[in-house]
Amino acid sequence: MLAELTAVACALVGGVFFAFSGFVMAALGRLTDDAGSAAMRAVNVTAVRPPLMLALFGTAAACVAVLVTGPSALQVAGAVVYLVGTVGVTVAANVPLNDALEREAATWPRYRRTWTRWNHLRTAAALAAAVLLVVD
């Protein structure tokens, strides 16, 4: 039951990131650089509050719990994929990019391309983790 609930949480986080990769970043890219950058900075301020932080890091805690309970190899793989590919990429790539955008809005075109590429990866990781957690 823990693995299944964790899979649902992974899919939820993956869905949020999918929305950004699928249409939010494209919509922001249609704005002027100043407007797109300002909108994304506003999103970044809002993102570091619940519910996204609870979903992102609560799911990470659930993945750790899955690892501790001694599940199947596929469930271990799913938990690791989420922790590395979703949380790890968020911390190592997307957050530093957000911090750079906050300091220098002129980086918007490069930021948007790079941030979206990393977001594609964390989207895929979250969704792959969801599948791995339930295919056993």
What string gives the helices and strands in order?
HHHHH
Number of domains: 1
- In helices, the fraction of residues equals over 70%
Sheet-strand content, in percent, reads under 5%
Distance between the termini: 12 Å
Q: Radius of gyration, rounded?
A: 16 Å
Q: Which overall shape is indicated by the principal axes computed on the Cα atoms?
A: elongated
Unreliable runs: none
Number of helices: 5
The chain-level structural class is mainly alpha
Largest sheet: none
Average predicted confidence as pLDDT: 96
Using DSSP, what is the number of strands?
A: 0
Write the layout of secondary structure elements.
Layout: H1 2-29, H2 33-47, H3 52-68, H4 73-103, H5 108-134
Helix pairs in contact: 1-3, 1-5, 3-4, 4-5
Describe what you observe in this structure.
- The protein is an all-alpha fold.
- It has one domain.
- It has five helices and no strands.
- Helix 1 packs antiparallel against helix 5 and helix 4 runs antiparallel to helix 5.
- It starts with a helix and ends with a helix.
- The model has no long low-confidence stretch (mean pLDDT 96).
For the structure shown, list the relevant keywords:
136 residues; mainly alpha; 5 helices; 87% helix; elongated
